[in-house]
Amino acid sequence: MRLLGALLAAAGLVAPALGAECALVNARYDQPGSDWTIEFHDVPVSAMVNQTAAFTMAMPKSGVELRGDVWQPNGYAQSWGALEGPCDPKAEKAQTCRLWEAVVYTEMVNGISVLATNDRAPAPLQILLPQLTSAMWYSSYRREFNDADPGDVFTFAGCAR
Length: 161
Prior knowledge:
Blueprint: H1 2-14, E1 27-30, E2 37-41, E3 51-58, E4 65-71, E5 80-84, H2 93-96, E6 98-103, E7 105-108, E8 111-114, E9 126-128, H3 132-137, H4 142-145, E10 153-159
Antiparallel strand pairs: 1-2, 1-10, 2-3, 3-4, 4-5, 5-6, 7-8, 7-9, 9-10
């Protein structure tokens, strides 16, 4: 019995951190089988008052980093997210920067829900960005990721810091 207890304790020391041990604001997510990653960070001081989370998405093999925001729309109970790329300074922002916008879902141990409105809450097991794949496919960034198509689901990979 002591041997079993020792083995379980040792396994706990080498096991990767679970989402509950890391706040969303410090969480990193990836897609198994690809190099796509999402890393959450502090909401910028200059952000909208109702912004609840901020993240960046690294595009593999391109050096391009996309900026993501999550906010609580007025009058709605769902966390709404958007993803923007580097803008063409000569074009109108709304037409060239915004690549994706939808409800942000999460998977926790008790099921699927919308992303928490507190970025200090435990990191979810998965982040679901519905229709991200098709939005990226039809974006001007498609040529940047060649054979590394993004998916809609990102899995917790650990604390970024």
